Amino acid sequence: MFLKHFREGGRPCSACPAGYPQFCQSLVGPKGEHGEPPQPVLAQNFEVIEPQRNIYLRNAKTEDIYVLCDGWAFTFLQTGDGRRQIVSFLVGGDFFSCDLLIDDSSGLSLRTLTKSLFCRMRRAEVRSQILKSDETWNIVGKVCIANERAKNDLLLDLGRRNADERIAHLILTLTERLDRLGTPHNGNYPFPLRQQDIADATGLTPVHVGRMISKFREFGLIELSAGHLRLLNRAELVRLGRID
Amino acid sequence: MFLKHFREGGRPCSACPAGYPQFCQSLVGPKGEHGEPPQPVLAQNFEVIEPQRNIYLRNAKTEDIYVLCDGWAFTFLQTGDGRRQIVSFLVGGDFFSCDLLIDDSSGLSLRTLTKSLFCRMRRAEVRSQILKSDETWNIVGKVCIANERAKNDLLLDLGRRNADERIAHLILTLTERLDRLGTPHNGNYPFPLRQQDIADATGLTPVHVGRMISKFREFGLIELSAGHLRLLNRAELVRLGRID
DNA sequence: CGGCAACTTGAAACCGGTCAATGAAGGTGG
DNA sequence: CCACCTTCATTGACCGGTTTCAAGTTGCCG
């Protein structure tokens, strides 16, 4: 596994578990013959982080942006009295955040779900790298747009959809993203979210999430246990989630 | 009023009712001695639009971005079966949208609330204008960040707050924006939203919004009728809205 | 004066929340 | 290897905020 490779002294990007995504390539440099970037174009600061640790808290000043190389994390918001709303889940290859490309702080907080490997880069360096090349700018722009659309979807979920739809939608978008990551899944996915996390992401309570999951299971739509998800009837889940 | 001035052949920006906001200045050019931009730096296409008209529908290709010079409008999302979620309200000086600066379509739709005056500009021209000047880029960046934060607030509202809090929050953010527009209000605001619109913005039903408004009125927090809002007890409204 | 849209009010149903008890899984130390 | 603890999932009973449905009422405009 990647984390092991890293701890043993391997050069992280040469064994990137996220398939060395486009925007890393255009920032860090293309892979050479032997999988090595010819020379680092900007400073990278790798760090392994334990599960359930806050990486960044909203409105904190920072000079860095964060790339999640391996593991799972999520961004979230919190009310004054501690109620939490998860905004997005990050998997290998995602970065935090578009805000931090423009400003020196973000309104979102960032927290690990599983043990994770992060790469921190200096905002200033990333920015100048982006401005240097139209292609890089386009790639990053696309990521930001995709982010925006995901946020819109979530707004619609929270404002206008009921529990079934929200949970079905969450499961579908997560699995679709995992599918796009390259490795074939055939309906079997790693799924490290606890019911508490699903609840925080869908604006529901853990208890009610549990009930809905039981219902899905009963109807033969999914199997879900011990960090593993199996999609049994994707079509019906799509119908339930009212995906357009 | 501005719309009248415009119909009578006045040059729009010289009598801008939105106080000729920073980002218009840096795009269109600084005001001259007699309130005239020396020469238009980019093409502007003005248009008066009736209340309750769609200006832009999500995912439509467009080469333009839209500036709302006068009136009220809102951006919204819709489910396949027609449920609507309002994302933000636009008042004079706001533009639509940050997405359209990067991409040739947006996930949000745009619709007028009142009779409005819009200015359309070519995305390509705006973009090159932004890239030309660090200052312009910063101003636009700030607007996009503010947008982002407003969206975050809404996510938290829809996911984690109850009806009282959502409505109080909406009223407060709207009035604060109007206050920042320059003209002094002293607790009296134009308020063209119907209860249906408030409902669509807060993820509630019009009936329940009505009940909550009655409650606010009964408690002496606000007066609200005939397109006019008066804040009677702002402090208590802040407490209710749990604004941090 | 009539017509229409928006607002108000009431009663009943329902979705999801709250509280509480039980069970299953995994980790730790004796 | 087992006793113990902690965390998370499951289930049941009940509650309450919000929705739904429906019938007025108000206010505006022609």
Please tag this protein with its features.
homodimer, 244 residues, alpha+beta, four-stranded antiparallel β-sheet, 9 helices, 11 strands, globular, DNA-binding
Class by SSE composition of chain A: alpha+beta
The low-confidence parts of chain A are none
**Shape of chain A, please?**
globular
Alpha-carbon Rg of chain A, integer: 19 Å
- Helix amount of chain A: 40-55%
> How confident is the prediction overall: mean pLDDT of chain A?
90
- Order of adjacent strands in the largest pleated sheet of chain A: 1-8-3-6
Distance between the termini of chain A: 37 Å
Oligomer: homodimer
Largest interface: A-B, 34 and 34 residues
Q: Could you give the order of the helices and strands of chain A?
A: HHEEEEEEHEEHHHEHHEEH
Tell me about this structure.
The structure is a homodimer of 244-residue chains. Chain A is an alpha+beta fold and 244 residues long. Chain A is 42% helix and 21% strand. Chain A is built from 9 helices and 11 strands. Chain A has helices at residues 2-7, 22-28, 98-102, 123-132, 134-160, 163-180, 195-202, 206-218, 234-241; strands spanning 45-49, 54-56, 64-70, 73-78, 84-90, 95-96, 109-112, 116-122, 188-190, 222-225, 228-231. Chain A has a 4-stranded antiparallel sheet. Chain A is globular and about 55 Å long. The mean pLDDT of chain A is 90. Chain A binds a DNA duplex (30 and 30 nucleotides) through residues 162-163, 194-196, 204-208, 210-211, 213-214, 225-226.
